[in-house]
Amino acid sequence: MYGDCEAISSMGGNLVVSSETLFTSTFQNPNFTYLPLEPLPPMIPKEENGSLLRGKEEMKSGSESELQETTEQPLKKKRYHRHTAHQIQELEAVFKECPHPDDKQRMKLSQELGLKPRQVKFWFQNRRTQMKAQQDRSENVILRAENESLKSEFYRLQAELSKLVCPNCGGPPVPGGVSFDELRIENARLGEEVISSTFLLFSILCTVRVGLHFALTI
């Protein structure tokens, strides 16, 4: 196109060039290189661009602050109140006299010791639980000792019974602790009682028979 313009200027200013010749010459010129148009970035006003940047910075700072809060939150530990030696001494003295104080007594203790009624209530609850656990442990110890003593006594008696023998036959003793001699004496006594009872019954029957015979003869 630049060459066409030079040709036109050399011929003079009165030369008329048609629109077809002008626009087609650019495509017919072999030295012409066509550069494609690149899209322009969108035009954003200065105020809107500043507000967008501020919004991004605020979102970034907000996310960083939330992350910092979440990381610092598990580090917080619950604070526990520790009673002084004087407070524990006074509470123990009241506990010995009354393990279950009412609301008025707890209120009075809280005022005297500088504690909250809720703290006094929880202290007595924990103390009762501790006392019950100590009693259970002591009872378990006593029961275990008694159990071991009974087991030892049982094994001792079992060993002594296994060593006992009958003095007459040398065999194991009769269950119940009765010897064979005593059994023989008892059997003899029972036999005599049977004989005497039979004789008495026979005499009674004879007497009855004699009486009936005498009555019939009359």
From TrEMBL:
InterPro entries to which the protein is assigned, alphabetical: HD (IPR001356), HD-Zip_IV (IPR042160), Homeobox_CS (IPR017970), Homeodomain-like_sf (IPR009057), HTH_motif (IPR000047)
UniProt xrefs under SMART domains: HOX
UniProt GO MF annotations: DNA binding; DNA-binding transcription factor activity, RNA polymerase II-specific
Location(s) in or outside the cell: Nucleus
Short name of one Pfam family: Homeodomain
Any GO CC annotation of this UniProt entry: nucleus
Keywords annotated in UniProt: Coiled coil, DNA-binding, Homeobox, Nucleus, Transcription, Transcription regulation
Name this protein carries in UniProt: Homeobox domain-containing protein
Organism: Gossypium anomalum
